[in-house]
Write a structure and sequence with these properties.
By secondary structure, the protein is of the alpha/beta class. The chain has a domain at 161-262: Periplasmic binding protein-like II (D-Maltodextrin-Binding Protein, domain 2). It contains nine helices and eleven strands. It has helices spanning 60-65, 68-73, 99-110, 125-130, 190-205, 221-230, 240-249, 275-291, 293-301, and strands at 75-80, 83-84, 88-90, 96-97, 114-119, 136-142, 151-166, 183-186, 216-218, 235-239, 254-271. The strands form two sheets. It has an eight-stranded mixed beta sheet with strand order 5-1-6-11-7-10-8-9, sandwiched between helices. It has a three-stranded antiparallel beta sheet with strand order 2-3-4, covered by helices on one side. Strand 8, helix 5 (190-205) and strand 9 form a beta-alpha-beta unit. The longest helix is centred in the last third of the chain and has 17 residues, at 275-291. It is globular.
């Protein structure tokens, strides 16, 4: 979406059940407070009903690839921006859950480690990995050629962008251009970049009003979703999996407008040049794909349409 800088790459063309005010949500859904762009939000949601997935057995050959400092620690510190349901978000008790968390736990288990997930601001994660604050990140980052210059990435999911509007599209918004429409986006994401670099230049060239402020930008995705449901914004652009989940949980208040687009692989972010760890993570993801654990995790969260059959290192398509 730099993206989620992108979470998804540029292209032309949450756990959430929100009340009418989009400020307080009932138990078993997303709780959002502090909806201003500079305020914080906390998300409390109930994960999908499903039996607990058994932890995969460690793979001795893959475990041998793990750097000694991680083997000695017995854990891998994984950064994630926990405001991006269903990929990663916080339950009422503050526990981070989601697709990426289940996958991270399974990857760590394959490597004979425990996963230690830490909530982080999305646009600070890459720098945190470069500073060795985190060992890696699973947070819906799109694998891009630009990003591969500073970090290595292992592909694990296929995502795209999607647009959401109020149910019934009462303002008759055209998904092809959005000119003059108030659009909510998360700061530092390709959704925000697309407005500035693709959509607004196109609107200007056609003599149409621009999307105000290059999008209404929020630090957290939960705040962007809240702004749409509350009617402060008229549309929202986010990852297709996030939009689909928000629509499902919104109680009929919002809907996806048109089809997803700009579909690209998401990647696990790893330190540049750490070949052994990158190879270990790639092998773990591929093993999970091959033994069916990967499919079970995606199915649990209803995002199996984004499944890949092969985990690649630096597999950016654009």
């Amino acid at each position: 979406m730099t993206a989620r800088a992108p979470r998804t790459r540029l292209s032309a063309p949450s756990a959430v059940r929100l009340t009418a005010t989009a400020a307080l949500i009932t138990t078993g859904s997303l709780l959002i407070t502090g909806c201003g762009g500079a305020q914080s939000s906390s998300a409390a949601a109930t994960a999908p009903t499903a039996s607990a997935l058994p932890a995969p057995k460690a793979d001795a050959k893959l475990a041998e690839l793990v750097p000694a400092h991680l083997r000695n620690a017995g854990k891998v510190v994984i950064a994630t921006d926990a405001s991006y349901a269903p990929m990663e978000y916080k339950e009422a008790d503050g526990r981070i859950v989601g697709v990426d968390v289940d996958l991270g736990d399974a990857i760590a288990a394959k490597l004979g480690l425990k996963a230690d997930f830490q909530d982080a601001k999305f646009d600070a994660i890459i720098g945190g990995i470069q500073a060795k604050k985190y060992d890696m990140s699973i947070s819906s980052f799109t694998d891009t050629k630009e990003r591969e210059k500073s970090v290595d990435m292992v592909t694990y999911f296929s995502a795209g962008l999607a647009i959401a509007v109020k149910k019934g599209n009462p303002k008759d918004i055209d998904p092809a251009q959005l000119c003059g429409v108030k659009v909510a986006v998360q700061t530092g994401t390709v959704s925000a970049d697309e407005i500035k670099e693709v959509r607004n230049p196109k609107c200007k060239a056609e003599g149409k009003p621009l999307i105000p402020n290059n999008g209404h930008r929020f630090e957290l995705q939960t705040d962007a979703t809240t702004a749409l449901v509350a009617g402060r914004d008229d549309a929202m652009i986010s990852d297709s999996s996030v939009v689909a989940y928000a629509v499902k949980q919104s109680g009929g208040q919002i809907e996806q407008l048109g089809k997803r687009y700009a579909v690209d692989p998401s990647g696990i972010v790893l330190p540049k040049g750490d070949g052994r760890l990158t190879k270990a993570v790639q092998g773990a993801v591929q093993a999970l794909i091959d033994d069916g654990t990967y499919t079970k995790i995606l199915t649990k969260w209803g995002v199996q349409s984004g499944a890949l059959t092969r985990a690649a290192v630096n597999g950016a398509t654009g």
